[in-house]
Structure formats: C-alpha cells, structure tokens
Design goal:
This protein has helices spanning 17-31, 40-45, 48-59, 67-89, 116-128, 157-169, 189-192, 194-198, 204-210; strands at residues 107-109, 112-114, 176-178, 183-186, 222-225. Strand 1 (107-109) and strand 2 form a beta hairpin. The chain has one domain. It has 236 residues and is mainly α. It has a three-stranded mixed beta sheet with strand order 3-4-5. Strands 1-2 form a two-stranded antiparallel ribbon. The termini are far apart. It has nine helices and five strands. It is globular, with a radius of gyration of 20 Å. GO terms for molecular function: electron transfer activity. Residues 67-166 form the DUF547 domain. This is DUF547 domain-containing protein. It comes from Hymenobacter lapidarius. Pfam families: DUF547 (PF04784).
Length: 236
C-alpha cells in the first residue's frame, strides 16, 4: 500500500502594497463610522481582520515598494497599529492610560520593531517633510483629525492628503473661528510641529488658508491653541 504524507501547508504569499491597502480599507469601512470614530469593542469581539492586517504589516517588504507606496504604507500602518494597541488594552478611556504607548512599545512593521514615534518621525516626517501627514495620522484621540475610512494608496496619495487636510481644516470643530472676538483657535499640533509647517513657508493661519480657499481666516485675527483632548475616539 502506498502511503501519502500530508503535504506542507502552502506558503502564504508575501503581502503587497495593493493587498495591504485593500485589506485596510475593508477593515476601516467595517469598524470606523463616517465621523471617524472607531468601534473598538466590535474589533475586540471579532479581531480576525485586525490580526491579519497586523501580520501583513509586520512582514511587508518595504524596500521593494515604490516611494509613494512606502509613504502610504507607513501612514496606514501607523493608524492600524494604533487601533491594534488600543484593542489589546480595551476597555480604556484614553491612550494615556497605556504608559509608553507612543515612545516605548515596539511594534512589528515592515520587518522592524518600531515605536509609533519612530514610525511618525523616522519613517515619515524626516523623509517626506510633508505637514499634511499630520492630518492623516490618527493616534486614537478626540483631538486627532477624523480617521479616513479609506486606506492611503501610493498612486492617489497627493490627492488623498490634500483632501484629508482640507476636510480637517474646514471643520469648525477643528479650526475654531470666532468672528465676534476676531480670534481663531488652532489645534496644538500647529504649535508642536511648527517646524514641519514652516517647510512650506506657511505656518498657522497662512497654512490653514491654503486649504480654505472660499472660507479664509482673516490674517489679522489673533491666534490661540485649544487644549488637546486625549479622550478615546471611541464610537461608544
């Protein structure tokens, strides 16, 4: 009698930029609402999509990707990994309830172990010098811009980042214009990352107005920064 041994499981295909973006969009559309709030409880109950994405992000060969796809990959990876860490510790009220969330916890991304701060600074800010990324990265807080329900895609990235910046900077809850007091209140990222915005030769209100063609803030208005809200961007 001839015996047949069980063949080894087929090797899993290496993730591509296209496959990661497709899976990211499917994940976001399932668990993020139109207001950009995340259903963390739902992901906790049904983590399969998140886990599959985390595995793909961990082993993605960044060096083989085009420059624009690398940019999109790290934007998507940051947002997914933030959600993953929150889900791992859920329920919680704020990312501040997780010591080292930004600068100590190392996560698997593109064959490296990086903190969220390293992804933001070393893989994005230092390389692309593009302040629009501050409207695309969402760190799980209420003061972050709305989380997009579509993954960033290399070939569409310029348009996507412009649209994301415009959406945030036209949001009256994000850029708070008080005509009576001739005052505009900006999110604190404009203070924290002023050097990033200065690379465009526009900071503060001048940068905001670049994306508010039909609703410009008068440049003589006084500028203030409203306190950052560290509460979780939870649908609950």
């Amino acid at each position: 009698m001839v015996c047949f041994s069980t063949p080894p499981a087929a090797a899993q295909e290496a993730p591509t930029a296209a496959s990661i973006t497709a899976k990211t969009t499917a994940f976001l559309q399932k668990f993020v609402n139109k207001e950009g709030k995340v259903n963390y409880a739902g992901i906790k109950r049904n983590p399969a999509q998140l886990q599959e994405l985390q595995q793909a992000i961990a082993v993605f060969d960044v060096a083989k990707a085009e420059m624009a796809d690398q940019y999109a990959f790290y934007l998507n990876a940051y947002n997914v990994l933030v959600i993953g860490e929150i889900v791992a510790h859920y329920p919680l009220q704020s990312v501040q309830d997780m010591p080292g969330f930004f600068n100590k916890t190392r996560l698997e991304v593109g064959g490296e172990r990086l903190t969220l701060d390293q992804i933001e600074t070393d893989k994005l800010r230092k390389i692309y010098a593009d302040p629009r990324l501050h409207f695309a990265l969402v760190c799980g807080t209420n003061s972050c811009p709305r989380l997009s329900r579509a993954a960033y895609v290399g070939k569409n990235l310029f348009t996507q980042l412009n649209d994301q910046a415009k959406f945030a900077l036209l949001d009256p809850a994000y850029v708070k214009v008080d005509e009576g007091r001739q005052l505009v209140k900006l999110p604190e990222i404009f203070k924290w990352y002023e050097a990033d915005f200065s690379t465009t030769n526009k900071t503060g209100v001048m940068y905001v107005n670049h994306f508010r063609k039909d609703a410009r803030v008068p440049t003589w208005y006084a500028v203030d920064y409203y306190p950052y809200n560290w509460g979780l961007n939870d649908q609950k």
